[in-house]
Amino acid sequence: MADWDSDDHRDDDGDWGQRDGDGRAQSDGGDWDTGTDPQPRGASPDAAGGSGDTDATATLGSVLKMSGISLGLVGIALVVSNAAFLLVAVLATAVGVNVLDDLALQLVLSTVLLQGIGFGTAALVYLRYNDLGFEYVRARMPTWNDIKWTIGAFVAGYGLLIAGSLLLTALGISSEGHSIAETASGNPEILLVLIPLSFLLVGPGEELLFRGVIQNAFVDRVGVGGGIVASSAIFVSIHLPNYGWTDGLPTLGVLFVVTMVWGYVYERTDSLFVPAMAHGAFNAVQFAALYASMTSGAATGLLW
């Protein structure tokens, strides 16, 4: 696929991190995620001059502050989705459906409400508070080039998953499966529902918040490379409970590398569609593989 490098979103000089003037203007005041003007996209912390120690301290402070804001946004998403879940549960009980007794229904509802409503609400809160338009997240109609990048990103991500799993096995390190595997063990059919939801809600919802908002905010402050790493670390950190906390760190290490692929292709293509669909396909294939494994009597884990 040699023509990927001819991507019409890339600047003539090949500097794929610079996108000034594309609607990413900061608000004039009330910027709650920094307190100082962000660095230009793709610029190094020393670009503005001054002592290296001062710049390094300011950069570290900016990263820590944005990390706190990012976790706060995740908290908003959880509060909104849990409130919506309780409302749905009450309404369902009123018509004779006990959601709390059905783990499969709880899983599907939680997925819909968190990725579909919670993450979307958190993203909108950030954009509204900072007086940013939706163009900030770079969501647009996909081109054929975007579709090629999506396929490539999926192949790269899944290849890294396989390579990481083989490496852990070779090192004698056990990998921890996602909690969804345990939930689905008694009712594998719910995995068939999660396959389309991966494309419709999970991939788009997570990428909207973690790439469209959080990664963009980090990149504005520490440059493209640092922004990809920081947003990927935040993404991985919120999955700790799903993988048994410290027991899942080796598996999450693999997920961290895979997640950086989504961040990279987002910056290269300027399109939220690419990481959203690549991420969705990545999850969907694992749900399908887990379903096939469970219904055939084999055991497997799940990395998400």
Automatic annotation (TrEMBL):
Origin species: Natronoarchaeum philippinense
Biased composition (Basic and acidic residues): 7-25
Compositional bias ranges of the Low complexity kind: 42-53
Entry-linked Pfam families: Rce1-like
Residue ranges constituting the CAAX prenyl protease 2/Lysostaphin resistance protein A-like domain according to the UniProt record: 191-285
Protein name in the entry: CAAX prenyl protease 2/Lysostaphin resistance protein A-like domain-containing protein
Segments for region (Disordered): 1-53
GO term, biological process aspect, one: CAAX-box protein maturation
GO MF: endopeptidase activity
UniProtKB keywords: Membrane, Transmembrane, Transmembrane helix
Transmembrane feature ranges: 71-97, 103-127, 147-170, 190-210, 222-242, 248-265, 272-294
